[in-house]
């Protein structure tokens, strides 16, 4: 293969992109007290990231969390401790060489485009062009109030975000001072250098609503989607084809080609019985207060995502559950690919042992099934 591919282009050549959803929040995705060693600390997440890179994963991804004391509550104080993904990816840039590093930023929580353009370009330089930004607007009233802000109406958030990201992209691409007096943001003779690799950073978005998807297909390279039908794999694979086709058609209408990713929670063991035993252990050991608060928060806002998920779905975590043997997990990935999914951003319950088993038993079968190339493609140095 050519050695002049950008880091993103190298990842996009894979038949199915493969990412790891980092557990940078206490309890990760699962408000359960079942035994595990998963940790929110930087050291633990650095170990996960290096392991994922060595296994050939294309990207790691961290979400952003703004919680009050006690997090989602319960005995475990679910997600009370949560590190910042922007700073975590900056740290990961120094200990990795190939894997893409994507961090989430709530761009409407007091940010200015010039700040984020500068920070993004800096991490791009630190990582050799491997940094990506998941541009979210936020939807929780409590989060806006943390920053002394009033909650912004749903569709209006995307009008503001469009101006924000347009200005940020111009700061990355243009080589002259930029003056802009827009509806929401102003700057006079603004400039950043160095520029990010490829004239912009990798842009990512997770959207489901009409306004959100219009914004995403305009700006994003990668779009995270949720299953409209909840976490059950059969129902998800029935509902996703129409959803993914709509997104790709909207991008094509704008002359763009986007890749669609989804985050499945993978529970994989040598036997199907062992896998389902782990699934039921997570549910049977749910922290009832944390699980209820987590479920109510994500189904009670004005966002369109997650509406089909049940409280049990939220307790296990992730968006679609893939439970079974290594062969059954790979079959699940193939079904998602047939439903229009270009990549999976997996999360686990006990990350390091589950990731180790995934690398040993699932990845070889993914290569045999044509979902992964034998070795990661080279990117430009």
Provide tags for this entry.
alpha/beta; 13 helices; globular; 12 strands; 43% helix; 381 residues; eight-stranded parallel β-barrel; TIM Barrel; single chain
SSE blueprint and pairings:
Elements: H1 7-12, E1 17-21, H2 42-55, E2 59-62, H3 85-93, E3 100-106, H4 113-127, E4 131-136, H5 141-146, H6 154-173, E5 178-181, E6 186-190, E7 202-206, H7 210-219, E8 222-225, H8 233-253, E9 259-262, E10 264-268, H9 272-284, H10 288-299, H11 311-316, E11 320-324, H12 326-338, E12 343-346, H13 351-368
Parallel strand pairs: 1-2, 1-12, 2-3, 3-4, 4-7, 7-8, 8-9, 9-12, 10-11
Antiparallel strand pairs: 5-6
Keywords: Flavoprotein, FMN, Monooxygenase, Oxidoreductase
Pfam family, one: Bac_luciferase
GO molecular function, one term: monooxygenase activity
Fraction of helical residues: 40-55%
The stretches of 5 or more residues where confidence is low (pLDDT under 50) are none
The CATH topology annotation reads as: TIM Barrel
Derived from helix and strand composition plus strand pairing, the structural class reads: alpha/beta
Quaternary structure classification: single chain
Radius of gyration, in Å, reads 20 Å
Main pleated sheet: 8 strands, parallel, barrel
Strand order of the largest sheet: 1-2-3-4-7-8-9-12
The CATH homologous superfamily name equals: Luciferase-like domain
Shape: globular
Number of domains: 1
Instruction: Quickly count the helices.
Output: 13
CATH architecture: Alpha-Beta Barrel
